[in-house]
Design brief:
The chain has 110 residues and is α/β, with parallel strands linked by helices. The protein contains three helices and five strands, in the order βαβαβββα.
Protein backbone atom coordinates (compact mmCIF):
# COMPACT_ATOMS: atom_id res chain seq x y z
CA UNK A 1 0.00 0.00 0.00
CA UNK A 2 1.39 3.37 -1.02
CA UNK A 3 0.49 6.31 1.19
CA UNK A 4 1.05 9.76 -0.29
CA UNK A 5 1.99 12.54 2.10
CA UNK A 6 0.31 15.93 1.68
CA UNK A 7 2.79 17.98 -0.33
CA UNK A 8 3.18 21.32 -2.05
CA UNK A 9 3.69 20.83 -5.77
CA UNK A 10 6.49 22.69 -7.53
CA UNK A 11 5.98 22.85 -11.28
CA UNK A 12 9.10 23.83 -13.20
CA UNK A 13 10.26 24.61 -16.71
CA UNK A 14 14.04 24.64 -17.00
CA UNK A 15 14.49 26.14 -13.53
CA UNK A 16 17.66 27.85 -12.39
CA UNK A 17 19.22 25.38 -9.94
CA UNK A 18 19.95 28.04 -7.31
CA UNK A 19 16.37 29.36 -7.40
CA UNK A 20 14.93 25.86 -7.05
CA UNK A 21 17.34 25.03 -4.22
CA UNK A 22 16.37 28.13 -2.21
CA UNK A 23 12.62 27.69 -2.75
CA UNK A 24 12.89 24.10 -1.52
CA UNK A 25 15.02 25.18 1.44
CA UNK A 26 12.31 27.65 2.49
CA UNK A 27 9.70 24.87 2.49
CA UNK A 28 12.01 22.54 4.39
CA UNK A 29 12.57 25.19 7.06
CA UNK A 30 8.80 25.29 7.58
CA UNK A 31 8.59 21.49 7.79
CA UNK A 32 6.35 21.00 4.75
CA UNK A 33 6.93 18.30 2.13
CA UNK A 34 7.14 19.11 -1.58
CA UNK A 35 7.34 17.36 -4.93
CA UNK A 36 8.96 18.71 -8.10
CA UNK A 37 7.49 18.11 -11.57
CA UNK A 38 8.88 19.30 -14.91
CA UNK A 39 6.26 20.91 -17.19
CA UNK A 40 6.12 22.47 -20.67
CA UNK A 41 4.43 25.72 -19.57
CA UNK A 42 6.92 28.60 -19.25
CA UNK A 43 4.96 31.23 -17.28
CA UNK A 44 5.68 30.94 -13.51
CA UNK A 45 2.25 32.28 -12.48
CA UNK A 46 0.46 29.71 -14.66
CA UNK A 47 2.72 26.93 -13.36
CA UNK A 48 2.03 27.98 -9.75
CA UNK A 49 -1.73 28.18 -10.33
CA UNK A 50 -1.85 24.71 -11.88
CA UNK A 51 0.35 23.27 -9.12
CA UNK A 52 -2.01 24.73 -6.50
CA UNK A 53 -5.00 23.15 -8.25
CA UNK A 54 -3.30 19.75 -8.33
CA UNK A 55 -1.79 19.75 -4.83
CA UNK A 56 -3.74 18.15 -1.99
CA UNK A 57 -2.71 21.13 0.18
CA UNK A 58 -3.88 23.76 -2.32
CA UNK A 59 -0.53 25.54 -2.48
CA UNK A 60 1.71 25.53 -5.55
CA UNK A 61 4.94 27.04 -6.79
CA UNK A 62 5.96 27.65 -10.40
CA UNK A 63 9.56 28.20 -11.48
CA UNK A 64 10.77 29.03 -14.95
CA UNK A 65 14.40 30.02 -15.35
CA UNK A 66 15.17 32.55 -12.60
CA UNK A 67 11.52 33.54 -12.05
CA UNK A 68 9.26 31.98 -9.42
CA UNK A 69 5.66 32.41 -8.26
CA UNK A 70 3.50 31.03 -5.45
CA UNK A 71 -0.27 30.57 -5.75
CA UNK A 72 -3.11 29.11 -3.72
CA UNK A 73 -6.18 27.18 -4.83
CA UNK A 74 -9.10 29.59 -5.14
CA UNK A 75 -7.06 32.52 -6.44
CA UNK A 76 -7.62 33.70 -10.03
CA UNK A 77 -5.07 32.41 -12.58
CA UNK A 78 -3.10 35.65 -12.88
CA UNK A 79 -3.08 36.42 -9.14
CA UNK A 80 -0.20 35.11 -7.02
CA UNK A 81 0.62 35.21 -3.32
CA UNK A 82 4.23 36.13 -4.17
CA UNK A 83 6.32 36.55 -7.32
CA UNK A 84 10.12 36.74 -7.66
CA UNK A 85 11.60 37.96 -10.94
CA UNK A 86 15.34 37.26 -10.95
CA UNK A 87 15.04 36.90 -7.18
CA UNK A 88 18.01 36.79 -4.88
CA UNK A 89 18.68 34.00 -2.38
CA UNK A 90 16.57 35.52 0.40
CA UNK A 91 13.59 36.29 -1.87
CA UNK A 92 13.50 32.75 -3.25
CA UNK A 93 13.79 31.19 0.20
CA UNK A 94 11.02 33.51 1.45
CA UNK A 95 8.76 32.44 -1.44
CA UNK A 96 9.23 28.79 -0.50
CA UNK A 97 8.61 29.50 3.17
CA UNK A 98 5.51 31.58 2.38
CA UNK A 99 4.01 28.80 0.27
CA UNK A 100 4.27 26.58 3.36
CA UNK A 101 3.15 29.28 5.81
CA UNK A 102 0.02 29.94 3.77
CA UNK A 103 -1.22 26.39 4.28
CA UNK A 104 -0.28 26.49 7.96
CA UNK A 105 -2.23 29.76 8.32
CA UNK A 106 0.79 31.61 9.66
CA UNK A 107 1.83 35.17 8.84
CA UNK A 108 3.84 35.45 5.64
CA UNK A 109 7.47 36.54 5.65
CA UNK A 110 8.09 39.93 4.09
Amino acid sequence: MVIKKPTIFIYTCQPDRAVLKEVCAGMEEEGVFFEIFEQKETEPAQLAWQAAQDSMLGSGVGISGMDAACSMRGLPKKRCVQVCRNGNREQCRSLGANSARAIKRQPLKV
